Amino acid sequence: PTEAVDLLDDIVATLALDLKVQVVMIAGNHDSGKRLAFGSRFFDRSRLHVCSAVVPGTVRLADEWGPVDFMLLPYADTETVRLELNAENPTDADATIRRRRDAWMPPGAGGNRTVALAHAFLAGGQPSESERPLSVGGTGAVATGNFEGFQYAAMGHLHRPQLIDGGRLAYSGSLMKYSFDEAGQDKGFYFVDMDGAGTLRQEFLPLRPRRDVRVVTGRFQDLMAGAAGGSPDDYLSFVLLDEAPVIQAIQRLRTLYPKTMEISYRYQQEALALAPAQRPDRSSRSALELFESFAEWSTQKPLTPSQREIMTKLLTDAVGDGGGE
Amino acid sequence: PTEAVDLLDDIVATLALDLKVQVVMIAGNHDSGKRLAFGSRFFDRSRLHVCSAVVPGTVRLADEWGPVDFMLLPYADTETVRLELNAENPTDADATIRRRRDAWMPPGAGGNRTVALAHAFLAGGQPSESERPLSVGGTGAVATGNFEGFQYAAMGHLHRPQLIDGGRLAYSGSLMKYSFDEAGQDKGFYFVDMDGAGTLRQEFLPLRPRRDVRVVTGRFQDLMAGAAGGSPDDYLSFVLLDEAPVIQAIQRLRTLYPKTMEISYRYQQEALALAPAQRPDRSSRSALELFESFAEWSTQKPLTPSQREIMTKLLTDAVGDGGGE
Hints:
The structure is a homodimer.
Chain A: H1 2-18, E1 23-26, H2 33-37, H3 40-44, E2 48-51, E3 57-63, E4 66-73, H4 78-85, H5 93-102, E5 113-119, E6 121-122, E7 141-142, E8 152-156, E9 162-164, E10 169-171, E11 188-194, E12 200-206, E13 213-218, H6 220-224, E14 235-240, H7 249-256, E15 260-265, H8 266-273, H9 287-299, H10 305-320
């Protein structure tokens, strides 16, 4: 969306131009790499370093201890890698990353510290529901060994913040929660400080969004009494503990919690988890019996004799019609 | 296509960074304005001025005679203008442009010369077939009066290069031919020199593409003997002067002219131009007569008696079957 493009434009301009901070970034699998790299020669002159190429980009920055070299390894699909590097059909994601890393040209002598920025699914990493698979077929996972020799690797792709190999490889994760599967994750980013020996000090700085994404479990009546906690403006998924469906539950919940996204029932989840043979058998009950129990549940009253008479007649007529449409 | 993005990136970087030329550009209706403007704060610092906003952008450049102010008026759809300028439903393209021009803030005093860059269909301009309409309904045309007071207006949208109001308003036109309708146009751009009094010297510099787009008229046999002229690698539309269809004409022409895009027959164009009552009436001829004339045209020989006998039998059988499938 154009609002996201505007926001990114604003953030990188504020960082690189106003605050004069060096910014190094790579394209992910949701970005149009070529578009993101448009103007990168202009950006380079003003502390913004963007890479979306198959052959990893190189940036040399410096601190009080000397130069630090960055390898920029953005997302690239296997077919593009095959074409650009003349690789004979890289067999999997790991071979593809290895091929690209080997094509990297470090910026020359003098640097003892190197940092990788890479978009990849590291073997051993914990995925979430909302990540788009990086490859069709196969796991798409790459070995951590590909980042041997780097003092630090700032990884992108997995949405869950996580440290690998004692923190030498780290995913900050997504800045926002992109599915209810991520409701329990703390979102934010790693702030990393490296000294002259390449020793890291790492701190996770949480980000608190305006609207949280939460899964809330409870009985309908309690939730309607305000038991959901947090902000009523959060994005909510309700798991209802009631033993039967509640009439118009989602519409009624939305009067209190306008951003209710979905509801489900614990008893249904449990029923679905049962093997078919364990599920209650309703096939032995007549149509009239099933209707009576539904009507009683809906109205909280049993059918009157005249109501039962009408229903009996209707059902007989329907069967008399052959049950067709 | 990403190749076009790469090419534009390369051209603006060469102009602004390598040749240190000031570049001023606006988004057209085929561009994603927001994407084109991404990073514009970075570009501005390096002589590249891009605008894709509803409120016209401003750039002040200077030459030996003092400042020259540019108004950058890119394409914007009516709905976006309505939302951003709180305009009460601009009724047409002209009102929309006027509203935007009035919102322009010139960069301050001191400038006696102003130049407009605008994407619009000027009333009186000559359109081509391949331009995408700028508005749904209406002509989309805007009055030249909107650019009153500007020493020069460099216009975009119409593909045909053309001067309006004695050259004070000018379309360079598209750099390439985008339909056979444009085959007869010379493509290129206006090189404009302005002196301290705002007097213009204008020169049209033609661009010669690697492959031309041409409409070639001739008889099939002559064309197959090489009569198409130009480069055989041009994009060609053939108008055949033959009085009857030529078997597999386009496939055979492509053996000589591989980028043959289409063929048509002059006699068919003329027949289509006739009123229905003037067209030859074939309904009075029998199926056998029609087949005989087709066979004679295809083989350059009349049917033999035995061929006619077979065909007569086939046609009788077909009619005997009721003519159905």
